[in-house]
């Protein structure tokens, strides 16, 4: 026993707390912990660091070894010491260089301008992947604006460096705030469902902003071959103006949403005329094969009783079936036939839809050539909603964008590792 204990005891005896922390922080040759204070209410650990006297430091501008001009005291929050807050305090030297004058030396444990150590920032970035900034602020007992600043630094740096030169097919979509009328436009890489750009508004200029950003990310507007979007005239105009080589694709999803709305309109009209359709909503929405037997039966009976409803459902289901075609020529003929049927259906909402289809003919058929869908939008929308909660809605657009890039941008963050 006595023999086993001996080396441990001698190690402890040989190391002061200051030396212990110097080693634990991995400070290297130039810095050492000169004082540890554990005091205050609530208790906190304060480690005072000093540079080793007589050391020369590299000038932050030119790298020449220079003498120390003076020092400035600075403070950084570090990883907690058990449950206690821990801060590093150091008198950071300023070098005097013949060529560049006086400059503050970069402390090896922190990023310039940050009030946190690199290890603390690494922890924050790790947590931010899992929780909203509010929750992080509570957990770390830190003001959320300070956390956002760290998050924004790493996310914006990674976003600025991301390479878009291989992007060929994109999807454009808008996200609205739950309340109010603020919108943002999201531009996604349709191939890998990553969020490339988020800009305020939903005008044609949103696509202009993407064209410009593409240039800053190693790309060129002429490389974009196809753009999936809804039928908003603003996006069509933006795409035509800024991406003249790209095909506009109005995808299946958006058209089926319109067909669903047309059906709803028929149902409401019947209700206004006195039809008893209470509780019928769920048996009319969606596809028959997704309904249980009771609802299938209900749907059948309603269609028999109200022939308008039956026609509307048939029109919607047929339109969906046309999308199953993998041949553009077949699809074109079928869609043409469908438009004729809808126009003669004596259902004004479907007559309008047929007109809409005719007006967007090329873009709708472009789907059958490109098979480009807004699946990317579907994939990313949930993540963007999560980001919105993370940033507490639209209170601050930059926070929302940062959270969205962080979660949906597939960025390569250059975060320091905790070692
Ligand atoms: Zn210099």
Q: Which ranges are low-confidence, i.e. pLDDT below 50, for 5 or more consecutive residues?
A: 1-6
Instruction: Write down how many β-strands occur, each being a DSSP E stretch of 2 or more residues.
Output: 11
Strand content: 15-25%
Mean pLDDT: 89
Q: Whole-Å distance between the termini? A: 33 Å
Shape: elongated
Write up what this structure looks like:
The protein is elongated. The protein has 419 residues and is α/β, with parallel strands linked by helices. The longest helix is centred in the middle third of the chain and has 21 residues. The chain is built from 16 helices and 11 strands. The N terminus is likely disordered. The strands form 2 sheets. Strands 1, 2, 3, 4, 5 and 6 form a 6-stranded mixed sheet that branches. A 5-stranded mixed sheet has the order 9-8-7-10-11, sandwiched between helices. The two termini are 33 Å apart. Helix content is 48%, strand content 20%. α8 runs antiparallel to α13. Among the domains are: 96 residues, no CATH class; 119 residues. Bound molecules: zinc ion (ZN). Zinc ion binds next to loops.
Short description:
By secondary structure, the chain is α/β, with parallel strands linked by helices.
Comma- or semicolon-separated keywords:
419 residues, six-stranded mixed beta sheet, five-stranded mixed beta sheet, binds zinc ion
What is the strand and helix layout of this fold?
Elements: H1 2-14, H2 17-25, E1 31-39, E2 44-51, E3 57-58, E4 65-81, E5 84-97, E6 101-104, H3 118-128, H4 133-140, H5 144-161, E7 169-176, E8 183-189, E9 194-200, H6 205-216, E10 226-229, H7 233-242, E11 247-250, H8 252-272, H9 281-284, H10 293-305, H11 307-322, H12 328-343, H13 348-359, H14 361-370, H15 375-390, H16 397-408
Bound molecules: zinc ion (ZN).
């Amino acid at each position: 026993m006595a023999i086993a204990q001996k080396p441990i005891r001698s190690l402890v005896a040989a190391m002061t707390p200051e030396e212990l922390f110097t080693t634990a922080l991995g400070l290297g040759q130039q810095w050492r912990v000169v004082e540890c204070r554990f005091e205050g209410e609530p208790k906190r650990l304060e480690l005072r660091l000093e540079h080793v006297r007589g050391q020369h430091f590299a000038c932050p501008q030119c790298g020449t070894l220079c003498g120390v001009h003076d020092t400035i005291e600075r403070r950084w929050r570090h990883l907690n010491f058990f449950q206690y807050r821990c801060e590093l305090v150091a008198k950071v030297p300023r070098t005097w260089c013949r060529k560049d004058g006086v400059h503050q030396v970069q402390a090896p444990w922190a990023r310039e301008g940050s009030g946190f150590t690199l290890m603390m920032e690494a922890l924050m970035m790790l947590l931010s992947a899992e929780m909203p900034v509010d929750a992080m602020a509570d957990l770390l007992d830190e003001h959320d604006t300070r956390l956002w600043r760290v998050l924004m630094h790493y996310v914006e740096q990674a976003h600025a460096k991301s390479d878009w030169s291989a992007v060929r097919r994109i999807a454009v979509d808008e996200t609205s705030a739950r309340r109010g009328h603020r919108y943002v436009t999201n531009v996604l890489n349709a191939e890998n469902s990553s969020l490339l750009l988020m800009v305020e508004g939903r005008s044609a200029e949103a696509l202009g902003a993407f064209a410009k950003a593409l240039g800053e990310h190693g790309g060129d507007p002429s490389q974009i071959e196809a753009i999936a979007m809804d039928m908003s005239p603003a996006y069509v105009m933006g795409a035509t103006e800024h991406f003249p080589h790209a095909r506009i694709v109005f995808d299946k999803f958006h058209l089926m949403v319109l067909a669903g709305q047309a059906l709803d309109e028929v149902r409401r009209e019947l209700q206004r005329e006195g039809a008893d359709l209470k509780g019928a909503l769920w048996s009319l929405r969606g596809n028959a094969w997704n309904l249980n037997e009771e609802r299938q039966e209900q749907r059948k009976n309603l269609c028999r009783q109200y022939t308008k409803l039956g026609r509307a459902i048939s029109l919607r289901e047929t339109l969906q079936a046309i999308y199953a075609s993998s041949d553009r020529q077949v699809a074109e003929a079928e869609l043409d036939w469908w438009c004729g049927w809808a126009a003669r259906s004596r259902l004004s909402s479907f007559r309008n839809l047929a007109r809409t289809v005719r007006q967007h003919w090329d873009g709708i058929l472009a789907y059958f050539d490109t098979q480009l869908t807004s699946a990317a939008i579907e994939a990313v929308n949930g993540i963007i909603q999560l980001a919105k909660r993370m940033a507490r809605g639209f209170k601050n657009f930059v926070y929302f964008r940062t959270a969205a890039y962080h979660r949906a941008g597939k960025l390569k963050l250059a975060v320091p590792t905790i070692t």
